[in-house]
Specification:
GO terms for molecular function: oxidoreductase activity. The chain is an alpha/beta fold and about 325 residues long. It has nine helices and 14 strands. The chain folds into two domains: about 1-125 and about 260-315, Quinone Oxidoreductase, Chain A, domain 1 (Alpha-Beta Complex); about 135-255, Rossmann fold. The strands form three sheets. Strands 3, 4, 5, 6, 13 and 14 form a six-stranded mixed β-sheet that branches. A six-stranded parallel β-sheet has the order 9-8-7-10-11-12, with helices on both faces. It has a two-stranded antiparallel ribbon with strand order 1-2.
């Protein structure tokens, strides 16, 4: 089989295609023919050497969709999707024609999604699920403020809306609210925190900060009584400050989420929980901006590094 290989860290030019032996499934494993595999910003960071857990040589890639070709008889020929915080870092990843995964991580992809669409769900929606459902435990009727309604934030808005929450988005500029957002607030407008507190009847039950860093102190002030703040990033600052007395008097809670701690099995369970939402139309797959053959992976990685809007997908076995 052909696989994208990372033998040394650097820019996407260090990536090479190698011919490797086709894998065989051992006990508790399955082999998947990878029909589509998206490229995430974390995959680009992995190539650059910014993921300390990665061991080389390695095939990168976290998200995939494909067909089971070896393993338990009941799975042969099944169309499956998956993702994981271990795959592509400490075990060979999805940017290859074939992939070995634990049988326990196998889950059938939504029938109404193409392989390209299914491969683009993983990291964004799993991160959103960890934040909104697991960490924040958002409930119907509550309000959630999402700072940065991009890939992860957009997925969080969909999950929150399906739960039955009121969704407020925060972004730079006066953006129109999307179909899953009840109102958008311009973070550059004077008094925008007062606007958020008005929209949420005194403060949000949940604030999901996808930006982190310089937005942290602002996010704390958006919380209502017993509000929950979830952080997933530290974009421009790792060290932040806040008034601890105000924080505990408000009985606020702070949670961090790192999806790299969810392996293929844990991430697969979340995709299974998400599947019904895609099948009933509550969730929409992200826009696929570009697809590339495996042989053009360097160009695909460069597109992601350049900030291409929409998802970039490899089609290794097509």
């Amino acid at each position: 089989m052909k696989a994208l290989r990372l033998n040394q860290h650097g820019d996407p030019g260090v990536l090479v295609i190698e011919d490797l032996p086709s894998p065989l499934a051992s006990a508790g494993e399955a082999v998947v023919r990878v029909l589509a595999a998206s490229i995430n910003p974390s995959d680009v960071k992995n190539v650059e050497g910014r993921m300390s857990q990665t061991t080389l040589p390695r095939t990168p890639g976290r998200d995939y969709s494909g067909v089971v070709t070896d393993g338990p008889a009941e799975w042969l020929g099944e169309e499956v999707w998956g993702s994981g915080g271990d795959v592509g870092f400490t075990r060979d990843g999805t940017h290859a024609e074939e992939l070995v995964v634990p049988v326990a991580s196998l889950h059938r992809k939504p029938a109404n999604l193409s392989h390209e669409e299914a491969s683009a769900i993983g990291v964004n929606f799993i991160t959103a699920w960890c934040a909104v459902v697991e960490a924040a435990q958002l409930q119907a009727g509550e309000s959630i403020v999402i700072i940065g309604v991009g890939g992860v934030g957009g997925a969080a808005a969909q999950i929150a809306k399906r739960i039955g929450a009121k969704v407020i988005g925060v972004a730079r500029g006066a953006n129109a609210p999307g179909p899953y957002v009840d109102a958008m607030v311009d973070s550059k407008a004077p008094g925008f925190i007062d606007e958020i507190r008005s929209l949420t009847d005194g403060g949000a039950a949940v604030v999901f900060d996808t930006v982190g860093g310089s937005m942290f102190e602002t996010a704390v002030h958006m919380l209502g009584l017993r509000g929950r703040l979830v952080e997933i990033s530290a974009t421009d600052r790792r060290e932040v400050t806040f008034n601890l007395a105000d924080f505990y008097h408000n009985e606020s809670r702070l949670s961090g989420v790192d999806t790299l701690k969810r392996d293929l099995i844990a991430a697969g369970a979340m995709l299974e929980a998400l599947r019904a939402g895609f099948e009933d139309g509550s969730y929409k797959a992200p826009v696929i901006a570009q697809t590339f053959a495996l042989e053009d992976a360097q160009a695909a990685y460069r597109a992601v590094a350049a900030g291409t809007k929409g998802r970039v997908v490899l089609t290794p076995s097509k």
